[in-house]
């Protein structure tokens, strides 16, 4: 009875770089929550853009490349790339579709920092 060697996971892409799936780590649920909260807080505070936040969540939570993520959410890789680089003029429907893949949605916030803070703090008390 012969045994076949197990399939090896593809570790390098055509360019010779390690693939994201070869870098994938098991992340605890609490760590995922922390990453999500940190990214959301940075976006609300204006420290990072929506595109940068999306890319961080795609890479850190899902460990998948743009092609895989685009297919998962039903857009082209080009559109995803433009969104992540903040160069896109997509509709809010498409942006929501892309954000939904990492557990986010668009939300309307007042531009005034005081009102933002009051809104966020009031929501915490209601919960």
- The third-level CATH topology of the domain at 26-104 is 434 Repressor (Amino-terminal Domain)
Average pLDDT reading: 82
Helical fraction equals 55-70%
The biggest sheet, with number of strands, parallel, antiparallel or mixed sense and barrel status, is:
none
Tell me, what is the CATH class of the domain at 26-104? Mainly Alpha
Tally of DSSP helical segments: 7
Tell me the structural class.
mainly alpha
Which homologous superfamily in CATH is the superfamily of the domain at 26-104? lambda repressor-like DNA-binding domains
Task: Please mark out the parts with pLDDT under 50 across 5 or more consecutive residues, or reply none.
Answer: 1-11
- Alpha carbon gyration radius: 18 Å
How many β-strand stretches?
0
Span of the ends, CA to CA = 62 Å
Which overall shape is indicated by the principal axes computed on the Cα atoms? globular
Give the H and E element order. Answer: HHHHHHH
Residues in β-strands, percent: under 5%
What CATH architecture of the domain at 26-104 would you give? Orthogonal Bundle
Protein name: Helix-turn-helix domain-containing protein
Organism: Shewanella electrodiphila
InterPro entries: Cro/C1-type_HTH, Lambda_DNA-bd_dom_sf
Biased composition (Basic and acidic residues): 1-15
């Amino acid at each position: 009875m012969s045994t076949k060697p197990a399939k090896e996971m593809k570790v390098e892409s055509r360019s010779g770089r390690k693939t994201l799936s070869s870098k994938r780590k098991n992340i605890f649920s609490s760590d995922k929550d922390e990453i999500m909260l940190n990214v959301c807080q940075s976006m609300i505070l204006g420290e990072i853009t929506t595109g940068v936040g999306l890319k961080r969540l795609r890479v850190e939570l899902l460990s998948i490349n743009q092609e895989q993520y685009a297919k998962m959410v039903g857009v082209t890789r080009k559109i995803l790339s433009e969104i992540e680089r903040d160069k896109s003029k997509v509709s809010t429907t498409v942006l929501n579709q892309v954000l939904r893949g990492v557990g986010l949605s668009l939300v309307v916030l007042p531009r005034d920092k005081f009102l933002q803070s009051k809104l966020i703090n009031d929501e915490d008390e209601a919960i």
